[in-house]
Design goal:
- The protein has 239 residues and is of the alpha+beta class.
- The protein is 28% helix and 24% strand.
- The protein has helices at residues 5-11, 19-29, 50-53, 56-67, 116-124, 132-144, 224-234, and strands at residues 2-4, 33-35, 40-43, 90-92, 98-107, 148-152, 160-164, 170-172, 178-180, 186-189, 194-197, 201-202, 214-222.
- Strands 4-7-10-11-12 form a five-stranded mixed beta sheet.
- Helix 1 (5-11) packs across helix 4 (56-67) and helix 5 (116-124) crosses helix 6.
- The longest helix is centred in the middle third of the chain and has 13 residues, at 132-144.
- The protein is globular, with a radius of gyration of 19 Å.
- The protein starts with a strand and ends in a 5-residue tail after the last helix.
């Protein structure tokens, strides 16, 4: 996985200024690591450590322990949102495959580009900056290890249902590629059709666009075995 050394140092500020020193010691005490760009580290994380180490917070926590550096939790605050009559309707039909699904409604005045520092972090980690909404979803994923996704709320018809796909059901992803789904693939859907392939890729129909004013932000826990199986069947692998 790719990590931004600049972002790691935000959480563990006393990591070595010289990346070579970090790489040498991290290789010895944690995981195989190499520099693959000006600010990019490629770190080989074993599958049994994805839960705690597949994020900048996880790697920074390990680095802080190895280098006896203070560890700084990211600061956050509750956004001011009027939740009256704006709670998205969510139904989890596939409870075994989706143990938790959260959605929150927001309104935005206009869709802007992300600041340069955020774009730089995404680029260092191999992701393409798109716009402020999509970029902050990816940034939080890189930071915490929890994937997020945003839907255009006005393009979602009568709420969200997390269900299993029907055999042969189709979805067009945000890249404009059509995929034919298998029975048992987990999808995020509305009353019309799938909106996203759960845990893998968002769909084109409700993607964030230049006219988006209202969004639904998703955070969920999906069965990893099912997601891996779907990813292999579709030959679609994503962060």
């Amino acid at each position: 996985m790719k990590f931004s050394y600049t972002l790691l140092k935000q959480f563990a500020p006393k990591l070595p200024a010289d990346r070579a020193k970090f790489i040498e010691k991290f290789n010895l005490h944690a995981f195989e690591t190499e520099a693959v760009g000006e600010d990019t580290l490629e770190i080989s994380i074993p599958a049994n450590r994805y839960a705690d180490a597949s994020s900048h917070l996880g790697i920074a926590w390990l680095g802080a322990a190895i280098f006896n550096s203070p560890f700084k939790e990211p600061k956050s605050k509750e956004p001011k949102v009027d939740l009256k009559n704006t709670k998205p309707e969510i139904r989890v039909s596939a409870k075994k495959q989706c143990t938790r699904y959260l959605g929150r409604y927001f309104e935005i005045s206009r869709l802007l580009q992300s600041p340069k520092w955020l774009k730089d972090v995404l680029t260092a980690c191999g992701l393409r900056p798109i716009n402020a909404v999509v970029d902050v979803m990816n940034y939080v994923m890189l930071e915490t290890g929890q994937p997020l996704h945003a839907f255009d709320a006005e393009l979602v018809s009568d709420g969200i249902n997390i269900r299993l796909a029907k055999q042969g059901e189709e979805i067009r992803t945000i890249e404009g590629i059509d995929y034919k789904l298998h029975a048992g693939d987990l999808v995020i859907a509305d009353e019309k059709s799938p909106l996203a392939i759960a845990g893998i890729k968002g769909g084109k129909r409700a993607e964030i666009n230049l006219h988006t004013k209202k969004i639904i932000v998703e955070a969920a826990n999906f069965d990893p075995v099912g997601i891996y199986k779907t990813s292999r069947q579709l030959n679609l692998f994503t962060d």
